[in-house]
Amino acid sequence: MVIAVNTRFLLAEYLEGYGNFVYETFKRITEWHPEHAFVFIFDRPVDKKFVFGPNVTSVTTGPPARHPLLWKFWYDVRVPAVLRKYKADVFVSCDGFCSLTTKVPQCLVVHDLAFLHYPSFIKKSHLFFYKKYTPGFLEKARSVATVSDFSRQDILTQYSNKAREIDVVYSGIKEIFQPISNEVKVATKNKYTDGKEYFVYTGAIHPRKNLINLLKAFSVFKKRQQTNMKLVLTGRLAWKYDTFKEGLKSYKYRNDVILTGYLEENELAKITGSAYGLVYPSLFEGFGVPVLEAMRCDVPVITAAHSAMQEIAGEAAMYADVTSHTDLADKMMLLYKNENLRNDLIHKGREVAAQYSWDKTADLLWQSIVKAVR
Fold first, then answer.
1. What is the pLDDT of residues 314-367, one digit of tens each?
2. Which residue range(s) make up the domain with 296?
3. Residue 191 phi, psi dihedral angles, 5° rounding
4. Do 323 and 210 fall within a single domain?
5. How far apart are CA 135 and CA 161, in angstroms?
6. CATH code for the domain of 343
7. Is 95 inside a domain boundary?
8. Is the pTM of this model over 0.90?
9. Contact 122, 295 (CB under 8 A)
10. What is d(CA 244, CA 216) in angstroms, rounded to the nearest whole number?
């Protein structure tokens, strides 16, 4: 079988979101299934580290698909040409888009429908594309997968006349996220926070991540607790980050807020594992990988109630109404003051995190791929 894969998010300079999902699943799938040929389709020059084995052929077909007009051209013109040339039996796309013109069976992964619930957090041109073509993508794909039952139900609710049976494949946790030694914790705190304890947020700096409310909550926390606790924000500066950075200049506790920028995974694992707690106040996620990464590192978690994170974390996290900065601050203070609660969350988080792995994700995705062919 010839399996073509959309790998345009495998970017050497950084891996996050879709890129991590493709990397972790297909690194395993290509190794587990040497009897099949894989064609990785890139839209820009390929880093050799993404060619996982002798059964992988990399193909670059431009131009780089960086805005809606080029998305349309890439998926409906460039990709079908590659599928014909290599006689692909199936095309797998893990970014919510697929080709509307090819006759090759397709396996589509839709992570979430955030664009419908928070349209103001996406560029208008991108929003138009998502709204116009997502129904067609769901109808065209032979099999559809998503990363949580929360997202599965949302897709079925929003597109009941388009979506067929949807497979839940979840996401996984990289093995590098593990409890770390006290020596590494001390060194990490000395490097980033002058040796002080800190709350950490991991993810892109983006309006949907709700970081303005996190800053407000941290301000309330600092006023009430009179502590030298820091707040570390990791991740690249994404869409509309200028507004966030400008606001930070006049923020009262700006000297207690550290922006690290994008971190390589080794450093991210250290900074996650050295934190007093993870605060992940995102307004909408299909899964919420940072929550499980923190749990794997024995770091307690505060995150959003009534979301996919609540499905994933169960009783192993504290949940806040993240639209209310005072409720978020209350949860931060409770975690800070109650050591028994903190230890209980660490223990429960360890058990929850053990249930998820990229091996399981890759196996479930493989089943969805096979379903598309059959």
1. 999 999 999 999 999 999 999 999 999 999 999 999 999 999 999 999 999 999
2. 182-353
3. -70, -40
4. yes
5. 9
6. 3.40.50.2000
7. yes
8. yes
9. no
10. 12
